[in-house]
Amino acid sequence: MLKKSLVLLLVLTMVASLFAGCAAPAPAEAPAATTAEDPNKKNLEDSLAIDISTLKGTDGQPLILPMEKKEIPARPADPAALPEEDALHWYDMEFAGWSAEKINIPKSPANGAIGKKVVTIINGDHPYLTAYSNGAKKLAEAYKMDLKVMSPNWDLNVQNQMIDQAINSKPDMIILVPLDAKAAVQQFRKINQAGIPCIASNMLPEDEGMKYVIGWTGPDDWGQFRLLAQHLAKTLNNEGGIAYIRHAPGGSPFFARTYGPITELKKIAPKMEVLDMQAPGFEAEKTMQVVSDWITKFGPKLKGIVAADDSAQAIGIAEALKKANRTDIVVYAAGNSKVGMDGVKAGNINAITYQSAEADGAVPVLMAADWFNGKEVEPVRYLPKHVITKDDVDNYMPAQW
User: Percentage of the chain surpassing pLDDT 70?
Assistant: First the structure.
């Protein structure tokens, strides 16, 4: 009997142990609440706190100027069917980007601009573009962004190679100054397909290209040269023959700085006549030869010259007029280089456009920063328009380039 009781007790002990082993484990302690700050939130807060209002260009003007407003008219059914002297013929070029339906644009990370890697590919080597690059670097430094500037020196094939290099480096943003308005469509499409956000700058692509970019920034060349044309018409009492020294073929200024004034003069001074238009490049000697030929060919009929550049081209124009002793011909040009402003002061140039090269380079970097910071970014940002004359040229000294 005693033996049976001991066996029963042993069995009961084993069963109790089995149930004890199957009991639910004690609940684990909850992890301690983290006190580390979210780095993305900190970057965004620090980026938004950056004050760029005190930044100035080398000319003493604010680096970031108030952006220009522009009235956008309704698009004609077929702009190309209109005559070239009609401003609406150029609708798709002048208003590129305003109504483009965006394709595959990456969503903003909204995690701040500080530390972002940006590649800017300009279109060539020129004093203006040196100042443009300086403005871009100044704004990038303010936002502590890693900025690399590349130049193909006016070679489209080289620019395409640089785009490939930039894509392979996997930056957070590419800013491109397109060499050719038509070729830019494929360039922007390629960047877009690589999944890299992109901003177009300075020179407008065709409207098709604007589908693939966050936005475009730069001078309102069409508006600037309409203002210039108004000054020109007033000086010549709405009469006289005008000849045009053009920008590099293919880019948007090639068209804007010729047909901007032509279309405006057709509207406000229809008696004024287009005598000729040539694109001798940015060499003073070649420009001088073209103008000398005009003086010989048109004689007293030539009353005004409009130039796409107020530096080398302006020097060539001044030399030709001096050799021919033609003090009656007025000269208007895009600006505002030191050569151009000195020409305005000396009376060799009647007026030039105000175009801050440093602001031109800084504004696309600002658009990039705004996008990184999650701000709403409009499709186009124009630099402000102004015409510099002898009355106010000193306000824009010293020159940026």
Answer: 91
